Amino acid sequence: MLGNFSYHNPTKLYFGDDSLKYLRDELKNYGQNVLLVYGGGSIKKTGLYDEIVGILAECAKNVAEVSGVMPNPTVEKLREGVAVARENKVDFILAVGGGSVCDYSKAVSVSVNCSDDPWDKYYIRFEEPDCEIVPVGCVLTMAGTGSEMNGGAVITNHEAKLKIGHVFGDDVMPKFSILNPRYTMTLPKYQMCAGIYDIMNHICEQYFSGEDDNTSDYISEGLMRGLITASKKAVADPQDYEARSNIMWTATWALNTLVSRGKTTDWMVHMLGQAVGAYTDATHGMTLAAVSLAYYRYIMPYGLKKFARFATQVWGISPGSKSDEQLAKEGLDAMESWMKQIGLVMNIKDLGATEEMIEGIADATLILKGGYKVLDRDEIVNILRQSM
Amino acid sequence: MLGNFSYHNPTKLYFGDDSLKYLRDELKNYGQNVLLVYGGGSIKKTGLYDEIVGILAECAKNVAEVSGVMPNPTVEKLREGVAVARENKVDFILAVGGGSVCDYSKAVSVSVNCSDDPWDKYYIRFEEPDCEIVPVGCVLTMAGTGSEMNGGAVITNHEAKLKIGHVFGDDVMPKFSILNPRYTMTLPKYQMCAGIYDIMNHICEQYFSGEDDNTSDYISEGLMRGLITASKKAVADPQDYEARSNIMWTATWALNTLVSRGKTTDWMVHMLGQAVGAYTDATHGMTLAAVSLAYYRYIMPYGLKKFARFATQVWGISPGSKSDEQLAKEGLDAMESWMKQIGLVMNIKDLGATEEMIEGIADATLILKGGYKVLDRDEIVNILRQSM
Q: What are phi and psi of B127, to 5 degrees?
């Protein structure tokens, strides 16, 4: 059944190949000092940087920049951004990039007016912001994390070998996000596929928990079926606008709190994947792919009915006279075939993990309790070994 | 493919059997003069009225009331509400009831500070509000219309024999809505079933349009499958909280703009049903049920692939070697069986329509152009005759 909950998602979205035209009007709602945040500079190659700088100039904004935000934004980079934002008295942050740039911008937004160190406050003590939050807007160039319509912000601390996400409340969600599927088309295939699996796993993390019948799981099944169809088309032809637009829109709804309403959730694949990421700095979606099958095959007996339902409702496997065990197995086999078909990395060794790292990765894995089986440390080590 | 669109839904939702407790905090955000709007007085029998009046008193609000809002709110009642709101200088409207009470409250909210007659302005000239809108909050007691999270407001003009909906923008959407599935349990079964079909048809109206592949349709399929499952359980046991909560949550997402993003939509069943309603004053959901099958069977050949998909993805019909025609037919047959199983009214005669009314109902039917076949007046007459 649907447990008690609240739902509020104030982010305004502009979607489509003409969506950048709304940036001008949105900027009018915010202050004069803008912090422009972006990544490794691909937006300079594509011309998007020039377009955005042009719009900011038209709006007579004072622009400071933080560039070079890395795929797994570090705590050092976060502190740098906070310093730049303070120096320039920014009253608006414009994130142009993928989930990392959006996550990073949100982490800066809650830290600019806060005297505590952001890592300690938000990622160790898990406090909520008690200072003025600088509003954030996003121009998204990559589909995957859902960061464009949620309050999540993952930060990596290489020294501590920790990669931790803090999900902030609706006052930290972007005020608006501009989603143009064409911007995602210049992405290398490896990144596109990693994003696709990130989306799939966001849904699975919320789906594989609980025994009840609830609306959220039906929505999840619809989203997953649409994603599987679109992903095959996008891999066959990355310029397929229909497929890329469906992937982008699914990403947003996979992690904007809707499909977790009224239910428990798992998130252990993310905990495992983030620990792998902290050790290898590998692409987030690929770390999830590389640990997923070992994890799901291990917990399957504890959530058998849901895994059987996953097989029939998501992968279209005909139940016939098959047992739940058989169905559940076939469902995960179908997922494995699809993962290989779209070109995901299927083990953590290929991401740079070594035997020597396993104990450390296990130590860095947060153990959550919402899934079908609460793991102990030995089980985590075993799953990591199975993922090698 | 997903066409270009924007999405913004600022309504805050509190869901669950404890959700009324949030009313107190929400009321603090609004002014002192509250207009309490409700229907025929069932909330007095259930005790909800006393609870809410108690909370309003605790918050030291000045309360004016409009009661007796009918299932199809009339333009005369609308003018009465506007007058009461003006006299009492209300700065907040609290709707307690089903979709009609919510719709009505929104229609009042855009009319209080406007000198034009609301019927002429919003339902004949279809203008947008250019005056201050009074904020609305809802406590929902019936699941169906989705009015709790959208900008829709349907008003009936019996004199003109017109029942017309105006879908206002996000500034007219309720600021918050309180959704307690238990409140829906005191509803007569007839009303519950009418609500269930209203939800189903909201989704169908958005689903049966367009040839492309898009995320919205996958979400719709998930919502429909969940609704079908929950409806059977709720009919078997109206006190089944799990089923009632799933129905209530599905209703919200069936018509809060999500499943129409990026696609064309139909809405002809609503046009037909509303015209029947204007002549018979019958329950909205039942008017939709009574005209649906004649309409869908008539347009099926023009949208064959979608109707075949509906059969396999929503009703679980195995495609085998069946033709699209066969599948499409079996899908609608499955829907018919389900409609009969949950006890819907299957023809307009049983709702009070007579042969003599048919020409008038046809005249009152707005012809929309988003479906698989743009109807002419003769076709509308034929569909109405088939629905007798």
A: -75, 165
